[in-house]
């Protein structure tokens, strides 16, 4: 009990500093006092659940800059706080016991874009570190936003991570998919081309890399080695 009290006393200054920082940012951006208080209350409650508070302030500031009515801003901030709480739980169950805020935000945005909690966990497990988890989640969300099924998008990202593709290749996947779309390919065809083991004949009727568009990363051969 004594250790818990000491820990709470040590954490209190940091929590108060965070609240003051959020309040100062919101006031500096011109948000009215009652809106500042509501956003700060949501952020305080969210922080108690391990949810980073700064992104909630960002969400409120963004809404105010776009002239969104205060009631809708509060509703949006509350919704995002809940989504980040769910995202944080998914990230932690994926192996990151103390994820940084950017990973939780990336997971929340990915879930808002259509990824399920188990798909977030798959990306986090494949990444193995916070440094790779955040961009991996963002890439999966970007591919999903381009029309790929979330399962396909996650499989593409997980495969790239498991094969230890350079981060530059991982981050380039959305632009590769966009290029393929510009060449007239459907979302299903793009997913089939980017998925591992796509060399087998699939729904598109293609074989191997014969019809691979420019800039698409090479796929694995039957033995698992990467073709040059």
Describe the structure.
With 228 residues, the protein is mostly helical. It is built from ten helices and no strands. It is globular and about 55 Å long. It starts with a helix and ends in a 34-residue tail after the last helix. The N terminus and C terminus are likely disordered.
Topology:
Elements: H1 2-28, H2 33-47, H3 54-65, H4 70-93, H5 101-112, H6 117-127, H7 130-145, H8 150-162, H9 167-182, H10 187-194
Oligomeric description of these chains: single chain
Overall mean confidence score, pLDDT:
83
Strand content: under 5%
Compute the separation of the termini in Å.
61 Å
Output the number of helix runs.
10
Structural class computed from helices and strand pairing: mainly alpha
Determine the fraction of residues in helical runs and give it as a percent range.
55-70%
Task: Please sum up the structure shown.
The chain has helices at 2-28, 33-47, 54-65, 70-93, 101-112, 117-127, 130-145, 150-162, 167-182, 187-194. The protein is mainly alpha-helical.
Name a few traits of the molecule.
228 residues; mainly alpha; globular; disordered N terminus
